[in-house]
Amino acid sequence: MNTPELSCEEVIERLFEFLDRELDDVSQEEIDRHLKRCYDCFSRAEFERRLRERIAATGSQKAPERLKKRIRELTE
Amino acid sequence: MTPVESKQPGQASAANESQRVFREHVELLMDRLYGTALRLTRNPDEAEDVVGEAVASAWQRLDQLNDLSHLDGWLFRILHNTFISLRRRRYCREDKEVSFDQEMEDDDTRFSLFEHLHQPFLLWVGRPEKEFINRLLEADLRKAVDHLPDPFRIVVVMVEIQGYTYEEVAAILDLPLGTVRSRLNRARSLLQKSLWQQGRDAGLIGTNTGFRVGDRR
Question: Which of A52, B8, B52, B103 is most exposed, with minimal Cβ within 10 Å?
Fold first, then answer.
């Protein structure tokens, strides 16, 4: 049975949940299908993906030597 | 006492192996552990304390980890729990009232950078939204994350940096799933609004429209 195509509004409403992989498989596929045929929504999804990658990169920062030494001593 | 001292000989060699793997992983993960702690605490000294306490706690409980392939996730979970308990202890001691359940008043919960930058009718000027992301400095992004109030910053760090599911976040923070969702939505809106404002201040965006993405001032 074919499910009705999602509108752009419905896709945008659930875009973050889609990117976070929080939707069930059927919903993930529905949005994926929409993104393949809708350039505007695809551009938006790519933008949010790229922004997320850049935010994720802020979670890595060179640890101070003092901390490394403290951890090494702890686990000797 | 190291986790191995209370073991029988057969168990001891397995524990020695666990310890070796643990040391290697912690060494490799150190920048990510510290970076995550820094985003959570916004304070280098506090971040060191969080990482130190978390690693010490994990080291002592290493025998409770049945599958070493889960070591990374297990360590980050302990890091988050350590941050939350340290934070609560500190604020109790300083007698400051900080609630992880506080919500902000902000009507603009749906701010979208993309909607402000995207110009579908001006395709010949390129892709301003893509340019904008490329021109953001890591310092801009760190600042935007660090400026989020605690309840919102924590969920962003857990979901966007660590990749936890909403349910995992709800369990670790002991919050209803709906609260995690609403905080995450609000956090993303605040974060994007902050980046927009920083982009304007840096001269990356025109003052009236979003399509001009220029050089930094």
Answer: B8
In a domain, residue B193? The reply is yes
Tokens of B23: 């040391």
Residues 85-124, chain B: which have Cβ within 8 Å of A?
Answer: 113-114, 118, 120
Structural contact between residues A56 and B161, judged by C-beta atoms closer than 8 angstroms: yes
Report yes or no: B132 and B117 within 8 Å, Cβ to Cβ: yes
- CA separation for the pair B12, B5 (Å, rounded): 8
Residue A43 to residue B129, Cβ atoms within 8 A = yes
ipTM of this complex = 0.87
* Residue B142 falls inside a structural domain: yes
The tens digit of pLDDT for each residue in B105-115 reads 555 568 888 88
CA angle B183, B131, B155 (to 5 degrees): 15
Q: Which residues of B146-171 are buried (b: 16+ CB within 10 A; e: fewer)?
A: bebbbbbbbbbbbbbbbebebebbbe
> Strand, helix or coil at B45?
helix
Pick the residue from chain A with its C-alpha nearest to B162. A56
Question: Is there a domain that residue B24 lies in?
Answer: yes
Structurally, how many domains does chain B consist of? 2
What domains lie within chain A, and their CATH numbers? 8-74 (1.10.10)
Q: B48 vs A75: CB contact, 8 Å cut-off?
A: no
Owning domain of residue B47: 3-93
